[in-house]
């Protein structure tokens, strides 16, 4: 009887420890997922702001081109210098937009990976919970002590 109780206690403590580890991992994955979701929102707003600024500079460039055509050649030199500066600014903004877009896509990929990993972990947890309930059912049935003894001996 003491052997049966000690084996039962061993199984209970083992399952408790295992479920504690699983729950701890779930909590860490959920916190990481929340962080990635917040980062995704920030990167998305940055990309939108950069895109708006690039459109604004392109519109100003077009206005300057129209003004340049309407004015004489004396003012063309000044306007060309400003135009070149605006084109450089536009290129800088485009590269910044590409960088933020890449960061956004990376964050989205990370979020998807975290979701998939969380789903897999929850499936494993459900499976272990089913096994645990089956073991408890078999433990409560008559003749379960002999089954558990055979099972322990097989380890």
UniProtKB/TrEMBL annotation:
It comes from the Eukaryota. InterPro entries: BAP29/BAP31, BAP29/BAP31_N, Bap31/Bap29_C. It is found in: Endoplasmic reticulum membrane. One of its GO terms (biological process) is apoptotic process. Residues 91-140 form the Bap31/Bap29 cytoplasmic coiled-coil domain. One of its GO terms (cellular component) is endoplasmic reticulum membrane. Residues 1-37 form the BAP29/BAP31 transmembrane domain. Residues 47-138 form a coiled coil. Gene3D superfamilies: 1.20.5.110. Keywords: Apoptosis, Coiled coil, Endoplasmic reticulum, ER-Golgi transport, Membrane, Protein transport, Receptor, Transmembrane, Transmembrane helix, Transport. The keyword Translocase does not apply. It is a multi-pass membrane protein. Its main location: endoplasmic reticulum. PANTHER family: B-CELL RECEPTOR-ASSOCIATED PROTEIN 29 (PTHR12701:SF5), BCR-ASSOCIATED PROTEIN, BAP (PTHR12701). Plays a role in the export of secreted proteins in the ER. Belongs to the BCAP29/BCAP31 family. This is B-cell receptor-associated protein.
């Amino acid at each position: 009887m003491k052997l049966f109780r000690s084996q039962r206690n061993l199984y209970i403590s083992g399952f408790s420890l295992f479920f504690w580890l699983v729950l701890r991992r779930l909590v860490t994955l959920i916190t990481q997922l929340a962080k990635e979701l917040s980062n995704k929102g920030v990167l998305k707003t940055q990309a939108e702001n950069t895109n708006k600024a690039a459109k604004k500079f392109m519109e100003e460039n077009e206005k300057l081109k129209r003004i340049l055509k309407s004015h004489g050649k004396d003012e063309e030199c000044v306007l060309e210098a400003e135009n070149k500066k605006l084109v450089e600014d536009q290129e800088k903004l485009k590269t910044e937009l590409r960088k933020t877009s890449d960061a956004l896509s990376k964050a989205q990929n990370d979020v998807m990976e975290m979701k998939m990993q969380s789903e897999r972990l929850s499936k494993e947890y459900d499976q272990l919970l089913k096994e645990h309930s089956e073991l408890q059912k078999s433990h409560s049935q008559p003749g379960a002590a002999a089954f558990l003894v055979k099972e322990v001996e097989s380890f």
